[in-house]
Amino acid sequence: MKNKIYLTLLLLFGLMVLFSFKRVKGNEDENLFAIPSNFPKPTYHFKSNPLTTEGVELGKTLFYDAIISSDNTVSCGSCHQQSAGFTQHGHAFSHGVNDLLTKRNSMPLYNLAWSTSFGWDGGVHDLDLFAISPITNPVEMNENMANVLDKLRKSQNYPSLFKNAFGSEEINTERFLKALSQFMLTMVSANSKYDQYMRMEGVELDEKELAGLELFKQKCASCHAGELFTDYSFRNNGLEPAKVEDLGRFEVNQQESDKHKFKVPSLRNLGYTAPYMHDGRFETLEQVLDHYAGKVVKSEYLDPILQQNGKLGISLSSDEKVKIIAFLKTLDDDYFIKKESFSESSLKTVIPKKDILDDVKKLSFGNEKHQLIMNESLVFYLKLKDAILKKETNKAAVLANKLALSLDRIDRKNLDIASRVYFDKVYQGIAFDADHIIEGKALAQHQFDHFGELSANMFRLMASFKPSDKPLFYYESSEKKFSWLSNLSNEESTSIIKPYQFKDLKKRAIQP
Ligand code: HEC
Ligand code: HEC
Q1: 162-185: per-residue pLDDT in tens?
Q2: What are the residue ranges in the chain where pLDDT is below 50?
Q3: Does the CB atom of residue 314 touch ligand 2 within 6 A?
Q4: What is the pLDDT of residue 90?
Q5: 265: Cβ below 6 Å to ligand 2?
Q6: Residue 29 C-alpha to ligand 2 middle, in angstroms?
Q7: Cis peptide leading into 304, omega within 30 of 0?
Q8: In 283-416, which residue ranges form alpha helices assigned H by DSSP?
Q9: Dist. CA 107 → ligand 2 center (Å)
Q10: From CA 121, how far away is CA 292, in angstroms rounded?
Q11: Where does the Cytochrome c domain lie (predicted)?
């Protein structure tokens, strides 16, 4: 009898030990990572990289720190923005260092613990290895790991952040990558209206959404399968060939049959992640459904599901399209987009930002005609600012074009070498953002995002060459990364600026 009790106690004790281990190894700390009850088991190897609060914090700091890129200007967060479902807002292609463009559309980051491969072509099999690719890619961060580690070791904050996360100050590739993974693994998106409906949390889908769900199951779920809305396979969905050829999966495995095939993407948060497809060719879900309904292109690579019974594409009436879109919208997870703990502002360590004045040189145009051009350009700039702030998108596009053309009249041959090199570099930046403002005709937010960067470059020109004979003022708001030039010393209180309530405004004067 006594023995039995002992045995039972021993067994219980053993179970407790086992259970507590599983909690640590399996990351059952609900605050960091929890499996939503409507999701399958994740595939990530948590056992070799258990999440800890400190590890996630380190990963988040690295994710938002531009120190990882060669010229300290681009962070993971530049191309993966929370407000855009961790893809890049409004961009078909993203710009990395020196404003070079990526060849593919940045991917949204969420539910990575369930993915079996990473990238549009699935070229990387382990999340822990993924970060190496953007870091070393010349059009993304253009850096190498040895340099990154060196910069981190010499920084003020990182040795102690690594110590908190991994027990010693040692900074190595493995720890660096594991920390980044830890943060990215916490990005679970499972709180959309659809999820709450599936988990019966008192939320109902309306008639249209339910009809859309049924249609989706019949017409889309063979590829966009299950609760993750992908079967993680690689397929060709009949997009018209792009101007610049992208062979997709073939680039990874050289299999002829995998040419032009791309990963079936998940479909959560589409309301935030436009544009769509591997090259960001579609701006709207209507365009996506029009593609499936009538524009699927036949080729030897086209998925058999999209050419059944000799018919190309998926038959969809306009009513069915509307219903499917209504359903897709129930997959938007507003909670995920706004969750404070994913944001840069929740960081415990403030990432030092380069001061814009560090990049201002003392240079001269040495030419009256140039002074005149600069002052004329400034007028276009100020009008452009008004249009951006009033959300007059078409007018802003016209003015951005005028500004770029006006500045381009500066005759570089008449500048000394230092001035020429600097002018060209800054001008390129301005032309780049002006282009986006021109293209972004219908997207006020997109224009707004690019105007801040354009203003920073206008400031660089004005402060370096001092062409104006009146003082100018540069306002910088840390909150929205927005900045602008003005000839008013109290512009923060004018009717055009006031409604924006920019926080933490910093003002600098550029004296003639
Ligand atoms: C210049 C823009 C840019 C930067 C900077 C960038 N990414 Fe990306 N990211 C992309 C693009 C583009 C893709 C798609 C790549 C492809 O398919 O070739 C991508 C894909 C990914 C994926 C794959 C997601 C999936 O579902 O398969 C992960 C993970 C990722 N990035 C993480 C990171 C991390 C971590 C960093 C910082 C170290 C980073 N990215 C920096 C643009 C960027
Ligand atoms: C034969 C498989 C297949 C079927 C069926 C299918 N898709 Fe896709 N879908 C894909 C693939 C593959 C991609 C990525 C293609 C690319 O970028 O080259 C994709 C991309 C998308 C995207 C873009 C997502 C993003 O983040 O860029 C949306 C939206 C989408 N599909 C919706 C649907 C809807 C709605 C249906 C049903 C009407 C559907 N798909 C049916 C395979 C499929």
Answers
A1: 999 999 999 999 999 999 999 999
A2: 13-25
A3: yes
A4: 72
A5: yes
A6: 34
A7: no
A8: 285-290, 318-329, 334-338, 368-389, 393-407
A9: 14
A10: 21
A11: 207-332
